[in-house]
Amino acid sequence: LATFAVSEAAASPFTLESEGPWVRTAKDREACSVQADLAWCAEAAVEKVAYTEWTLEAVSGLQAKLTANFQYSYAVELPWRSHFEEAASGRRWVDDCDGLTFTMIDALARAGYPTDKLYRAVVSPAGNASSVAHMVGIVEVGGLYYVVGDSNHAEPYPLRQARFKPLLLSKVSEGSRWKRAALNAQLRARAD
Prior knowledge:
Helices cover 24% and strands 23% of the residues. It has 5 helices and 9 strands, in the order βααβαβαββββββα.
């Protein structure tokens, strides 16, 4: 499994649009009104548990447990939400990509994963900027970035192997705000 190591000089694989404000989406506002306990819904998300060393295997194991009873359903009309309670109790749950992403990122935050290493990303599949139809989670593990909670993949995979174009990025530790984003050219170059 090839991975991309982040150098000290390049702490993030993302380039955020410097001008322009952070935005809050209507779907995020709705999600936070229904599930206010989500880590990114607080004005200033705070870590609840002391940091312990997380490994890719631990993140993969958590994703496998959460998705064991997950059924994908293309359901644009559903509000964004986490299905953590259903998934953690082993009940069957149905949603699309955003529900899977919310559930995975919510579970990691509840388990004490540092919220400054968790992201939600609205992406354009296959790099097609005109098609905003997918959401994934991104997690930093040991200085490497992985895509998690992607309904197109059963396991986490290195971000450098992603075949999508990030359009909006929300860092969990910064609340429910989104910023326009792109992958740094250095990361994209190493993927080829």
